[in-house]
Amino acid sequence: MLQYALLFLVIALVAGVLGFGGIAGAASGIAQILFFLFLAFLVVSLIIGLFRRAS
Residue 27: is it exposed, middle or buried by C-beta count within 10 angstroms (0-12/13-18/19+)? Predict the structure, then answer.
């Protein structure tokens, strides 16, 4: 999922440089959503891993 976030970030940067503001905004929004989903899943998996290791 982090790879998709980075991919959309690169798309947003390229679109921004080329002057496609709407596409750049949409791609950066998608990249932000995917990045925060990745962080949430990372935290959840770390917590689950700690509980499994403790029991």
Answer: buried
